[in-house]
Automatic annotation (TrEMBL):
This is Dihydrolipoyl dehydrogenase. One of its GO terms (cellular component) is oxoglutarate dehydrogenase complex. The keyword Ribosomal protein does not apply. Its cofactor is FAD. Its EC number is 1.8.1.4. It comes from the Eukaryota. Residues 378-437 form the Pyridine nucleotide-disulphide oxidoreductase dimerisation domain. It catalyses: N(6)-[(R)-dihydrolipoyl]-L-lysyl-[protein] + NAD(+) = N(6)-[(R)-lipoyl]-L-lysyl-[protein] + NADH + H(+). The keyword Ubl conjugation does not apply. Binds 1 FAD per subunit. FAD binds at residues 54, 118, 147-149, 317, 323-326. Residues 8-332 form the FAD/NAD(P)-binding domain. Belongs to the class-I pyridine nucleotide-disulfide oxidoreductase family.
Length: 448
């Protein structure tokens, strides 16, 4: 081993949780190293998640706008087409630009980037299998696990990343398929399904539950599904997938009603398996150092991101909480602050989530159903007695850019009357939030 001097902090994993924590640690004056095995920084999010999916959503949306929506504005095109190769190239360039950008930020903030796979060898030791075949032992006062998540496999559906793909394969299909089945009606499946549906694929979403995106507010979900159906997406809800097998260039997918009934075989060009993600801790050596995981494989931590081993912290997708990049980032920053003796904290009740389909759906806080189940009297979604904002659901263009106003309001315990009385610029989409707040606080909006 080449043993270096002791680090204040060694972070295992260079995703949005790990790399942001590393930069924050550098900014706070810690001697920090970040171990990453995949060969580039940015984790799932930048390499095979948020960023490449949004790049394809963006370019396919531009095509769909030109094809279907701009006529009403008096803009027409003749001979409109798209070039899948250029869309893919654009996506790849965005990914490589951003991941290299993080390397630059590491240098700027004096973070050491250790390229290899890390294993815990003790409460203060990480051994790294380096990319060149050698290994290196890092000793650290504190260790942070930020190893993220991976796709949950589906029994009977063997992934080959060509015809039976995960989201990773779906981001780089060689061509736009004629037909596609998305297994799982969560946000990742709906986003990737939207990309291909816009480009001409006939997309069917097969979902075990009776609803898509089960965490969504019921009223919003029904409107959202109707809108996707209008665009041409088909839904087979309450349907169980038994198996998938390849036959030449086709996939034969066997499904049956979730409650039991006649089996059906669907022939399709591409199947996307998108039935959830699970924490990734393979080869990490958790058992050896005595760090337990829960039933879902998530590392157990206390309110300060500390595992059972006091010098080892864990953050991001690998611990409980929403599996989202911005949540991982907030975890990472808070954990570094705690390590530095400051009061780091993340309020999981105000983590927003956004589905980047068209229309976008952005939300924060409780659904109406959840609020009612808590015995609160609610209206879109504030407590009827105190008027305190409990949740917000927005469906429409740029919903993701509008939701932070509601996040901020919730963080500061604002009432809907506070929002209604705040002056919003005109004409802006944000006025819709003011109108909704007027409706909630005074029973009547001005413009509806
Ligand atoms: P990860 O990003 O998974 O990073 C963990 C890193 O650790 C990986 O790079 C891995 O190689 C490395 N690693 C693991 N074990 C070791 C080891 N032993 N040694 C060294 N390195 C190791 N979230 C959003 O907020 N918005 C979105 O729009 C969004 N879109 C998504 C779209 C898709 C298709 C997918 C798959 C995910 C999307 N997500 C989105 C989720 C988001 O990507 C994750 O929540 C986020 O990446 C979690 O960050 P993390 O740092 O915890 O883990």
């Amino acid at each position: 081993f080449a043993t270096g001097e002791e680090q204040d902090l060694v972070i295992i994993g260079g995703g949005p949780g790990g790399y942001v924590a590393a930069i924050k640690a550098g900014q706070m004056g810690l001697k920090v190293a970040c171990v990453e095995g995949r060969g580039s920084l940015g984790g799932t999010c930048l390499n095979v998640g948020c960023i490449p999916s949004k790049a394809l959503l963006n370019s396919s949306h531009a095509y769909a706008e030109a094809k279907d929506h701009m006529k009403a504005m008096g803009v027409t095109f003749t001979g409109l087409s798209y070039d899948w190769g250029t869309m893919q190239k654009g996506k790849d360039e965005t990914v490589s630009g951003l991941t290299k950008g993080i390397e630059g930020l590491f240098k700027k903030n004096k973070v050491e980037y250790v390229k290899g796979w890390g294993t815990l060898k003790g409460p203060n030791t990480v051994e790294v299998a380096l990319a060149d075949g050698s290994s290196r032992s890092l000793s650290a006062k504190n260790i942070m696990i930020a190893t993220g998540s991976e796709v949950t496999p589906l029994p009977g559906v063997p992934v080959d990343e060509e015809r039976i793909v995960t989201s990773t394969g779906a981001l780089k299909l060689k061509e736009v398929p004629g037909t596609m089945v998305v297994i799982g009606g969560g946000y990742i499946g709906l986003e990737m399904g939207s990309v291909y549906q816009r480009l001409g694929s006939k997309v069917t979403v097969v979902e075990f539950m009776d609803n898509i995106v089960p965490t969504m507010d019921g009223e919003i979900r029904r409107q959202f599904q109707r809108s996707l159906q209008k665009q041409g997406m088909t839904f087979k809800l309450g349907t169980k997938v038994n198996s998938a097998r390849r036959e030449g260039d086709k996939v034969l997918l066997e499904v049956e009603p979730a409650k039991g009934g006649a089996k059906e075989t669907i022939e399709v060009d591409v199947v996307l398996v998108s039935a959830g993600r699970r924490p990734f801790t393979e080869g990490l050596g958790l058992d050896a150092v005595g760090i337990p995981t829960d039933k879902r494989g998530r590392i157990e931590v206390d309110d300060h991101f500390r595992t059972k081993v006091p010098s080892i912290y864990a953050i991001g997708d690998v611990i409980p909480g929403p599996m989202l990049a911005h949540k991982a980032e907030e975890d990472g920053v808070a954990a570094v602050e705690i390590i530095c003796g400051k009061a780091g904290h993340v309020n999981y009740n105000t983590v927003p989530s956004i589905v980047y389909t068209h229309p976008e759906v952005a939300s924060v806080g409780l659904t109406e159903e959840e609020a009612k189940a808590k015995g609160l009297n609610v209206k879109l979604i504030a407590d009827a007695k105190t008027d305190k904002l409990l949740g917000a659901w927005i469906m429409g263009p740029n919903a993701g850019e509008l939701i932070p106003e509601c996040v901020l309001a919730m963080e500061y315990g604002a009432c809907t009357e506070d929002i209604a009385r705040s002056c919003h610029g005109h004409p802006t989409l944000s006025e819709a939030i003011k109108e909704a707040a007027l409706a909630t606080a005074f029973g009547k909006p001005i413009h509806m």
